[in-house]
Amino acid sequence: LQINVILKIKKVKIMSKTSSQVKNRWNEKNYDRITIMAKKGKKEEWKQKAKDNGFSSLNSYLIDCIENKI
């Protein structure tokens, strides 16, 4: 029984890792990664502003801010 359980656990880990690898490959092909560094506390402040303005994520809020500025 112990061997069976261990094999099942390993099988699940392999499946989810493969799924993550597929997602990561797709993201690498379709998106650019941009890192923003800000002072402590800004992330929470911006998340709240995003929520208050009806955005579903901080990322979509920041993209909107940048696109409107450019």
Summarize the structure.
The chain is an all-alpha fold.
- Mean of pLDDT: 84
Total DSSP helices: 3
Helix fraction, binned, reads: over 70%
Low-confidence stretches: none
Radius of gyration: 19 Å
Classify the oligomer: single chain
What is the element string, with H for helices and E for strands? HHH
Instruction: Give the tally of β-strands.
Output: 0
Structure classification? mainly alpha
Distance between the termini: 62 Å
What percent of residues are in strands?
under 5%
Structural notes for this entry:
The chain is mostly helical and 70 residues long. It is 74% helix and 0% strand. The chain is built from three helices and no strands. It starts with a helix and ends with a helix. The mean pLDDT is 84.
List keywords for this structure.
mainly alpha, 3 helices, about 0% strand, elongated
Compile the SSE list and pairings.
Layout (H helix, E strand, L loop, with lengths): L1 H29 L11 H11 L5 H12 L1
Helix pairs in contact: 2-3
